[in-house]
Amino acid sequence: MTRIKGGVMAQKRRKNILERAKGYRGIRSKKEKFAHEALMRAGRYSFAHRRDKKTDFRKLWIVRLNAAVRENGHKSYSTFIAKLKKTGFILDRKVLAEFASEHPIIFARIAKQVA
Known about the structure:
Helix content is 75%, strand content 0%. The protein has helices at residues 7-20, 32-71, 77-87, 93-102, 104-114.
């Protein structure tokens, strides 16, 4: 059986790693070893931060809702959400925050019905 050398595939793999690391600072975009390490670390961070993004947006919606709720005469965000659940509204925080920031008249109507 003939011997197969891995030069072509190795070059392809190195080229792929360096292409993916393009734009990284310094040696991380030029040397294969450092580029590979940077890519592995970036992958771990992106995996973790995809989870964190959901938490960050929920925090943002709560801050926006709290400001809008206080403008419309309610005591606080938590009491507003409690009353909202008692009255049977099925709107989530994302939609309510969008109404509060982009359509304040609609949000004012919702806040009045909840009160």
